[in-house]
């Protein structure tokens, strides 16, 4: 990734009031081998470091449970399609929590990140994040995907697209390489 893009994204994160991250199929362990699953776990841990203490909430469309094995605080995860053991948070409660975070975005400086979100289920993450970014004039939308890193019209410079695998992106944001 270009160092200017990394610097810009770090500045967006630093300037934001909170981060709302959507995780998509690029980080779906259901289709990954053991090495890729390790890379996905590392990506989740890298996200926490990338957020640098900012308040965050993560919504994932993936059915695997790897996100709950990461350093991401489970109270700040909504995983409506996840098959999870009973000790994980109640997903109806988590979904309502996510909706509250999304609803507060228009009044705050929100960093909205689409990490590996393609177009498999756009109604869950992509479309709500894009709509929120258009409405919330203080927000910035960052899309990261190896082939589907695109921005909707109407963001007026409040969007950044990075054509890269989401796991690699998270690692590079931490390592600086």
Q: Which SSEs are present, and which pair or pack?
A:
Layout: H1 3-15, E1 18-23, H2 34-51, E2 56-60, E3 77-78, H3 91-104, E4 110-115, H4 126-135, E5 140-145, E6 159-163, H5 166-175
Parallel strand pairs: 1-2, 1-4, 2-3, 4-5, 5-6
Helix pairs in contact: 2-5
> Secondary-structure element sequence?
HEHEEHEHEEH
Query: What is the count of β-strands?
Result: 6
**pLDDT below 50 for ≥5 consecutive residues: which ranges?**
none
Main β-sheet: number of strands, strand sense, barrel status? 6 strands, parallel
Strand order of the largest sheet: 3-2-1-4-5-6
- Mean pLDDT comes to 90
Shape: globular
Helix amount: 25-40%
- Beta-strand content estimate: 15-25%
Distance between the termini: 8 Å
- Tell me the radius of gyration: 15 Å
Q: Count of helical segments?
A: 5
Structural class: alpha/beta
Structural write-up:
By secondary structure, this protein is of the alpha/beta class. Helix content is 37%, strand content 17%. It contains 5 helices and 6 strands. It has helices at residues 3-15, 34-51, 91-104, 126-135, 166-175; strands spanning 18-23, 56-60, 77-78, 110-115, 140-145, 159-163. It has a 6-stranded parallel beta sheet, sandwiched between helices. Helix 2 packs across helix 5. The protein is globular. The termini are close together. The model has no long low-confidence stretch (mean pLDDT 90).
């Amino acid at each position: 990734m270009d160092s200017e893009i990394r610097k810009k994204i770090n500045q967006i994160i630093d300037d934001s009031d909170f981060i709302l991250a959507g995780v998509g199929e690029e980080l779906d362990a259901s289709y990954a081998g053991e090495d890729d699953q390790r890379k996905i776990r590392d990506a989740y841990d890298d996200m926490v470091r990338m957020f640098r203490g900012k308040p965050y909430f993560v919504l994932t469309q993936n059915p695997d449970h790897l996100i709950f094995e990461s350093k991401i605080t489970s109270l700040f995860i909504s995983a409506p399609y996840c098959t999870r053991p009973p000790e994980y948070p109640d997903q109806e409660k988590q979904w309502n929590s996510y909706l509250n975070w999304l609803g507060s975005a228009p009044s705050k400086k929100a960093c909205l990140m689409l990490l590996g979100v393609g177009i498999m289920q756009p109604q869950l993450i992509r479309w709500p994040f894009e709509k929120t970014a258009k409405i919330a004039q203080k927000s910035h939308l960052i899309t990261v995907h190896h082939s589907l890193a695109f921005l909707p019209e109407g963001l007026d410079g409040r969007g950044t697209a990075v054509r890269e695998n989401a796991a690699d992106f998270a690692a590079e944001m931490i390592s600086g390489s």
